[in-house]
Structure formats: structure tokens, C-alpha cells
Amino acid sequence: MADLQTYSHDAGWKNTVLRGLLYLVLILFAAYYLFPLIVMVSTSLKSLDEIREGSLISLPRVVTFDAWNYAWNEACVGVECTGIKIYFWNSVKMAIPAVLISTFLGAINGYALTKWRFKGANIVFALLLFGCFIPFQVVLLPMSQVLGKLGLASSTPGLVMVHVVYGLCFTTLFFRNYYVSIPDELVKAATIDGAGFFTIFWRIILPISTPIIVVSVIWQFTQIWNDFLFGASFASGENAPMTVALNNIVNTTTGVKQYNVDMAAALLTGLPTLLVYVLAGKYFVRGLTAGSVKG
Amino acid sequence: MGASQSTESNLTASIQRHLSKIVVAPSFAASLFFVYGFILWTGYMAFSKSRMLPVWDWAGLRQYERLWQMERWHVAIENLLVFGGLFIVTCLIIGCLLAVLLDQRIRAEGVLRTIFLYPMALSFIVTGTVWKWLLNPGLGLESMMHDLGWTSFKFDWLVNSDMAIYTVVIAAVWQASGFVMAMFLAALRGVDQDIIRAAYMDGASLPRIYFGIIIPSIRPVFLSAIVVLAHLAVKSFDLVIALTGGGPGYASDLPATFMYTMAFQRNQLGIGAASAMMMLATVMAIIVPYLYSELRGGKKNG
């Protein structure tokens, strides 16, 4: 930290002006980041007539939740006009098992790779890590064939499997880096007392892993909920996740363009991850930096 | 009876000894199959005659030749260079600026940080949807400026084939610049205070402290940020689909959308596989040297 107040050679009034300018620039940037969100909310609360007559920035004269209701219950995704709600539940049914399984596997992998090192453990880790970096386009074609052979094409269990497989490298990375900093003596002492591999994992390691479990769950949930590529490639029709349904609603070319419904559907799609971000922002940022600086 | 008991306990002991390997084995096997196996599979497909259905007949470099003869692929590559370059540079500038500004003992820093970073929690599809609405020439920003009295204002980039790719840059920068800010801010907080204080005592001005001491000392973060952003750029798919659909025509296609179109809509599996391999090669060219230097020099941070 090197700030103006502490490190300035200038007179007081000059600093006051500079600080005023500083806040102005920051507020302008805040407005830039908030603008799309505000427009999204305000558009979703207007009627279609008001959208056509009024301006982008004008707030709704009459607040109506019709667009939200329509988006949730009636909007047409392809030929099915069931609203976005069934796709919301598809995403929930996909995200929860995929997040839990990948986090659990990451935890036990990280534990095994750091506390019970075997010959070649580092090579195994490096090979696993590589999966974080590949562009997924390179696995799409074989995966669609394999899912077809397994009878999992266009199904939620199929998507769960895909997300677990390609989420593993991240969760293993998180837990491995976390467990590296935990003293080995903890495990050694327990082994002397006769505790085995799993006893130590459940009784000693997991209870002190809460922060990294939160990071991993948030990272995986955000990634899986926001995924579009796998959803669009491997699940169509009524098993599509929410992002795919949203894109269908927005890009449908038939009928009158209902901008308010588009915005309501977009907000509904964004709400779960936004909520997670607002409630657990610290862990979200930790996951981002851990997952992205190294992945 | 006694003999079988002892083999049993031998077995448990040996399982205990190998438990670590047994536990990691399924993940490792999955990775071998779904990552390495699939890369080889796609690699082979790119050398096959596959079109509508995957076939195993060898075609040599035929698919790569066809790929590089397609104008659409060249458009996608050029777009990636334009998009990637602008995206990376703009994100670095905004991210670095915001981090420095936030590092001035700002009141309500937490609130501002939350605001700058929240787009990163959204799906690119949501981002694409909202920017598509903001940028649409009929009712979006253009008409807003007209209402405000600036009637000659024209902003039709979304439907202009020469400019469509720049709308993708605008939306992507909005989404990712806050993340770069967070990376830089963390690095700024880690700079040694004593050196800064010493420079100040020597009469160095604040801009000189920043350009002379602080920014050079966080150089590794620039590298990390560039690698992360480049990686994001090459993988960009959802945003283009939601914002422009690759259009008008294929004017804003990127390699990722090109691959998807060939593989899943145009029945050109071979070309799709060849373009996926080109993408992999690009990412590897960025990531492998970076990882190598990280892992070699990264012993200190585990």
C-alpha cells in the first residue's frame, strides 16, 4: 500500500483536490459496472409498451412483475412453453451432485497426494493438473460419442459426469495446495496412535478443511452453474441446463421480442451465483485467484 | 484356519500400504481417459475422413488443408487476435488503474471492490444477454443518446460486420477487468512497505514510487494476469454465442464457435477436430512455458 496521504510532498489543499478526483473516478467506474445490472432490473420490471416508449435509463413508471412471472412459468424454450423453471431445476439437479462429488474427490486426492506420498505422486499431480488448462473443444467430439455409448446422451447424469471429470483437476489443486501447508506431524502422531488412512481423513483432516471446502464448493458451483459449452453440446431439449434455456429464449426469432422477459430470465439465471458471491465474496475471490493464477 | 487368517491380515496390511494409490487411482484413470485419451482421439479424428459420422479411414493432412483453406477459419483467427489483444490490454489497464486507486486508503473500499468484481460471478450468457440489449441499435444506448439530445449519435456495432467483434471486447472487459483488479490489489498489498518509505524519505514523488518501485516489483502478477486472460480469450465461446451468435454472418466468429459450428451443426467432424487441435496447440504454447517457469521457480510458495 502506497497512498497519497502518507506519501505526499505537496501542500494540503492539493491533496484534497486529488482525493476528490480519486473518489470521482472510482464512483464513475462503479457506475460503469453497475449500469448493466440496473438496466437489467429496471427493464425486467417494465411493461413492453413502456420499454418501447421510454428510455433505457428511465425507471419503470409502473412496476410490474409480469415479465418475471412469464419468464418463470410460460416463456417458450424451443417449442416447449413451460417457462424457465424446469431448466432452473435441471441446473440444480446437475450442479448439486457434481459439486459434492468433485469436491469430495478433490479432498481425498489432495490428502493422499500430500500426506501419504507415494513414488510418483508429483507426476500424478502434474498430469492431473494439465486437465485444467485444455480448451474443452478438444474433448467435445469424443465425449459426445462416449456419452452416447453409455446411454447418457442428453441427460442430467451425463452432465454431472462431465462436470465431475473436468472439475477434478481444480478441486484436487485446491485441496493439495491447502494440505501442503498442514504439518505432517499431525498425521504422523495419529498413525502412531494406530489410526489408519480413512480415520485420519475423517477425524483430523476434514474438520480443519472448512475454508478450502467452502472455496472449492463455491468455485465448482459457479463454474458448473455458469457453464454453457457442455450444456449446449451434451444436453438438449427438456434436459438442458438454465444457461442453454436462457440463450434459447433470448435468441428465438419467432413472435414479438419480449425484452422484459429476456431480462427477467437473465436475472433468474444470474441470481444463484450472484447470491453466492454476495454472501461469500471472500471465498469466491480466493477460489478465483487459486484456480486462475495457477489455472 | 490360521493360515487363511494370516493371508487376510497380510492383505489388509498391504491394502493399508497402498491405500493412497488406490484412492487416487480412479481420478487418475479418469484423467488419463477423458483428458489424454480424448486428446489423442480428437487428434486421430483430425487425420481421418470423418464428416457427418466419425470414421477411421486415414486421410492424412487433408482436414487441416481444408481447414486452412476456409475463409471462415481465417476470419475466426483474425478475430481471436483482435479480440484477445484488445481484451488483454484493456483489462490490464483498467485492472491496474483500479487497484492503484483502491489502494489509497479509500473509504468503503469493500463496497467498491464488491461492485467492481461482481460481473465475474455471472455466466457469460447473462453478460451477453444484457449487453445485447444495451447495444441493440433500436432501443438501447443509441436511442438513449437520442433522447438525451444527441440525435446524430450512431452505434450499430452489434449488426455491423466490421465492428461486431468489438462489442464482444466491450462485454468481456466489463466482465473480467474487476478480476484483474483483484489480482493486482492483492499484489500491491504484498509490496514491502520499508522500501516505499525509504524512497519517500529520499524525496521520491508518489508517481515515481509507483513506476519506479511498486509496478516493477509486481511484474510476476502482470505475467499471471496475461496468461489467465489469454487463456480466457482462446476459450471464449459463450459470450460470442449470446451476444452476436458469431454474426452478422460469421463476422464475429472465434475459433471456439467455429469448432462448435463445424462439429455440431455443419457435420464436418474432421474439420471440427482439426480446429480443436489448433486451439489446443495455441493454449499449450501459452501455458506450458508459463507452468514450467512457475513450477521451477514456485518451490517457495508450495
Automatic annotation (TrEMBL), chain A:
This is Sugar ABC transporter permease. The chain crosses the membrane at residues 21-41, 94-113, 120-140, 160-179, 200-221, 263-285. Residues 88-280 form the ABC transmembrane type-1 domain. GO terms for cellular component: plasma membrane. Keywords: Membrane, Transmembrane, Transmembrane helix, Transport. It comes from the Bacteria. PROSITE patterns: ABC_TM1. It is a multi-pass membrane protein. It is found in: Cell membrane. Its main location: membrane. GO terms for biological process: transmembrane transport. Belongs to the binding-protein-dependent transport system permease family. The keyword Methyltransferase does not apply. Signal peptide: none annotated. CDD domains: TM_PBP2. Coiled coil: none annotated. It holds the Pfam family BPD_transp_1. It comes from Thalassospira profundimaris.
UniProtKB/TrEMBL annotation, chain B:
It is found in: Cell membrane. Coiled coil: none annotated. Its main location: membrane. One of its GO terms (cellular component) is plasma membrane. One of its GO terms (biological process) is transmembrane transport. Keywords: Cell membrane, Membrane, Transmembrane, Transmembrane helix, Transport. It comes from the Bacteria. It is a multi-pass membrane protein. Gene3D superfamilies: MetI-like (1.10.3720.10). Belongs to the binding-protein-dependent transport system permease family. This is ABC transporter permease.
